[in-house]
Amino acid sequence: MDARYPWASLVQVAGPIMEKLVGEVQEGVILGVLDGFEVVYVHLVESSQAVRVHAAVGDRIPAHCTSTGLALLSQQEDTYLDRAVPAKLPAFTEQTIVNRRTLLAELQRIRGRGYAINRGGWRVDVGGIAVRIGDTHGHVVSGLCIAVPRYRMTNAWIARSAPSLIRVAEKISMALGASGGLAPGAAA
To answer: Could you give the CA distance from residue 30 to residue 28 in angstroms, rounded to a whole number?
Structure first.
């Protein structure tokens, strides 16, 4: 994690906006940051659904197996990826990306699509979509994820939820002083 970034300020800005997104999509929303090759959850807003994704502030998860991690990795320079991505990617489920070449190809797809999709890479019954949040200097500071039980993660759900997620991430980025949006090819 970049110790220079004021994480409390990020959470203060993002928190209320995340709550509105949860009300809109009726699923949990997680704010995470990249620390080496791990995602660290810094804030979350749970949904009121009886069946929902469980996560906790402070959870650390390998970046290659979550939508937040994939979104954040997709925005990193090749030198960062060369340094941070381990030679052997650990498997957690049958859906976990375990091949470096497959991971790099997925990061390219994310850049083009504008958001990351994960279907069971960390926990078999959990999925999510995620985008990056930028700051006034154009740096990626965090990732924002809608986490969902996988049985509710249909293509129709993704098509409905992704635009809302991108809009909210743009709103948070703008509140942090960023200029410009999260258009495909420039976002994750």
So the answer is: 7
* Residue 56, amino acid: A
What pLDDT, in 10s, does the model give residues 101-144?
999 999 999 999 999 999 999 999 999 999 999 877 777 889 99
* CA 133/CA 139 separation, integer angstroms: 8
CA distances from 136 to 15, 46, 49, 54, 119 (A): 19, 28, 35, 32, 32
- Whose CA is closest to 130, among 89, 158, 100? 158
In contact, 64 and 91? CB cutoff 8 Å = no
| Domain spanning 7-172, CATH architecture | 2-Layer Sandwich (3.30)
Strand ranges across the sheet with 38-45: 60-62, 38-45, 28-35, 140-149, 126-134, 116-119
State pLDDT tens for residues 46-87. 999 888 898 999 999 999 999 999 999 999 999 999 999 988
Residue 181 has pLDDT above 60, yes or no: no
Residue 45 to residue 53: CA distance in whole angstroms: 11
Ordered by start, the domain boundaries in the chain are 7-172
- Rounded to an integer, what distance in angstroms lies between the CA atom of residue 4 and that of residue 48? 34
